[in-house]
Specification:
Elements lengths: L13 H18 L1 E5 H20 L2 H8 L5 H14 L8 E8 L6 E7 L2 H87 L1
Helix pairs in contact: 1-2, 1-4, 2-3, 2-4
Length: 205
């Protein structure tokens, strides 16, 4: 007989099952949607509906009851500050389940568990992320242009320095050639003078 047996065992002990469902519910409240097996999604849905009801109440006792299932601070704050206020005028049915085929490997039935109204928040987040990526690309393009300009300026400065060095080297080479030419002329003149004086001496003797 299977009377008065509520819930699924999910192949886990009671403590493990409670912790797992609490973690899935926390992820649902933080991210707005979770992907898990269909059986787990159905179990988490009942817990999530109860937690949203406590969040709508907002009393200290309700917060203490919810704290027994949720250990993530971000999920607890979002549940009571945002999600509870979103469903103030709604009586139940705060979540939906999408079937997502079968898992590769063990062919387990998969599903998405999502909070109502979260799809619009996801669209806004995606738009914000898309705009943020565009801004990052523009910044990267600007930085790349600036880097290219700096590289061009550095190359121009390097070319100018190289040209100046070449000109200075050419001037030094020309000056050396002039000096060597002058020295050679002076040597020729001195050798001619000594040759004449020697011949004259020989002629006199």
């Amino acid at each position: 007989m299977n009377h008065k047996v509520v819930g699924r065992k999910l192949g886990r002990t009671s403590s493990h099952r409670k912790a797992m469902l609490g973690n899935l519910a926390s992820s649902l409240f933080v991210y707005g949607r979770v992907k898990t097996t269909l059986e787990k999604a159905k179990e988490v849905r009942s817990l999530a509906e109860r937690l949203v009801g406590w969040a709508k109440n907002g009393s200290l006792h309700s917060k203490r009851l919810a704290r027994g299932h949720i250990n993530q601070k971000a999920a607890f704050i979002r549940l009571f500050n945002e999600i509870g206020k979103r469903f103030e005028t709604r009586n139940g049915g705060y979540t939906r389940i999408y079937r997502a085929g079968w898992r590769a490997g063990d062919a387990a039935r998969m599903a998405y568990l999502e909070l109502l109204g979260e799809e619009f928040i996801q669209i806004k987040k995606e738009k914000h992320e898309h705009n943020h990526k565009k801004q990052d690309l523009k910044r990267k393009e600007k930085s790349s242009v600036k880097i290219a300009e700096k590289i061009e300026e550095a190359e121009i400065v390097h070319e100018k320095k190289h040209d100046q060095q070449m000109k200075s080297e050419d001037k030094q080479a020309q000056e050396l050639e002039v000096k060597q030419h002058k020295k050679s002329l002076f040597r020729r003149a001195t050798t001619k003078g000594t040759a004449r004086s020697g011949n004259s001496k020989k002629g006199v003797s």
